[in-house]
Amino acid sequence: MNATPSSAINLQHKVSLIDGFWTPRVVAEMNDYQFKVVRVLGDFIWHSHADTDETFLVLDGTLRIDLRDGHVLVKPGELYVVPRGVEHKPFAEQEVQLMLIEPRGVLNTGHEGGERTAQNDVWI
After folding, report:
1. In the chain, what are the helix, strand and coil shares in percent, each to the nearest 5?
2. Is the separation of the CB atoms in 120 and 79 below 8 Å?
3. Domain 24-103 falls in which CATH fold?
4. Of 75 and 105, the one with more pLDDT
């Protein structure tokens, strides 16, 4: 999707179009990076991304990112960057809406795979 958009992207509207949880959808690209919105609820899986950092920007709700040596709480309007190679596990006690910023082609489950692996490059 390389066409120049004719208007600003409304992130809340884009999130409202997503059915279900843990299925990131691309809303924009910049160079080789994708901006994805996603709704999350409950526990995800432990995983890492060997070749890239991953940015979580919370739009609504509070996201807990578990790390092997503790956790980080990320609230609306805050972001957290998980450094490349660091194992992490997102968790949302109640629904959280967020944006992920990561290079094109990065799988949401890293190299772990499994039923939580979302299809890549799905635009909304």
Report:
1. 5, 45, 50
2. no
3. Jelly Rolls (2.60.120)
4. 75
CA 25 from centroid of its chain's CA atoms: 9
**d(Cα 59, Cα 76) in Å, to the nearest integer?**
5
Average pLDDT over residues 10-35: 96
Alpha-carbon torsion, ordered 122, 35, 12, 81, to 10 deg:
130
Tens digit of each residue's pLDDT (9 = 90 or more) over 27-69: 999 999 999 999 999 999 999 999 999 999 999 999 999 999 9
Cα–Cα nearest to 104, from 51, 57, 41, 47 = 51
SS3 of 14, please?
helix
Domain residue spans of the chain: 24-103
